[in-house]
Amino acid sequence: MDNTSLKNASLFDNDPVLYAAWLYYQDGLSQSEVANIVGVSRVTVVKYLSLAREKGFVNISLDPSVFSTIDYAIRIKDKFNLNNVLILPNEDKQKLQDTLNMNKERLAKAGAMYLSQLVNDQDILGVAWGRTLYKLGKYLSPKSVKNVTVLQMMGAITPQADFKTGEITSLIANKFSGNCLNLHVPAVVSSARLAMELQAEPIIRHNFSVLNQCNKAIFVASNVQDDNTLVATHVLTKKEIAKYRDLGAVGEICGRFYDIKGNPLVSDIDLRVMGISLAQLRLIPQRLLLAGGIENIHATIGAIKGGYATDIVIDEVTASNLLKISN
């Protein structure tokens, strides 16, 4: 060591372990730089740093605010046997929950990034509809893939000011330079007989048959309160959705209702729904669920317990509630 190094070392009672630990952890020097200053080999520096940790001179801790969502994701993945879990950390730790609109924006952005990684050549992607998925289509970056088909999984509703059902599939298909298939039928028709007749039409029958060929799907799970989109757009009445609540419904996916355990709940309305069934959805190999907000907690729990999702993108509020529930 030179004179300056010797002088500095004296501040540490000439203990090379303390001195090396200070230079590495506090001054941020590399192991090679520490070795040059202390006058030992790099291998010796590694031993010094290990000894410093063993003696308690150095205490390394992880910032909970950074790593808590990673820990949540690992635990949720194992608990519910999921492929992957992506958790959006709260932007403002002082707030328990983002506003509904901000939450949808963040879910849409994260979902767009995840979906871009998910889709590959030859995929047949089933897509639900809703405001979050419409935003996702806007945020999705173009990706060069071959022969991708994007298919609407439920019939249409009347155009809304902030989204149109048919545009969601076309937005996503365009980003993948793929083929877009829409179900050119209402989400729910007036009778079971009409539903059967429409599905017998050649074009509609073909598009419905492609649902059985989907290898990937993306969807949201909605709550069953009176502000559900199906009620707000007059596809279902408040009385009809109340009927499902009486049966124990906590959530809805593509017009299909289920209870807290994910069991499908069937009524005469199901015979009039023009779209994928929960049984069909479960058969799709990879199924991405976007979920967030206190108001959708039970819908999310039921969807996961029912096995409708293999991958999830959720907010931190949802994650903490998933970890609280028993198996």
TrEMBL record:
UniProt KW keywords: DNA-binding, Transcription, Transcription regulation
InterPro entries: NagB/RpiA_transferase-like, RNA_pol_sigma_r3/r4-like, SorC_transcr_regulators, Sugar-bd_dom_put, WH-like_DNA-bd_sf
Molecular function terms from GO: carbohydrate binding; DNA binding
Keyword Phosphoprotein: no
DNA-binding is among the record's keywords: yes
Domain Sugar-binding, residue spans: 67-324
Family: Belongs to the SorC transcriptional regulatory family.
The protein's name: Erythritol transcriptional regulator
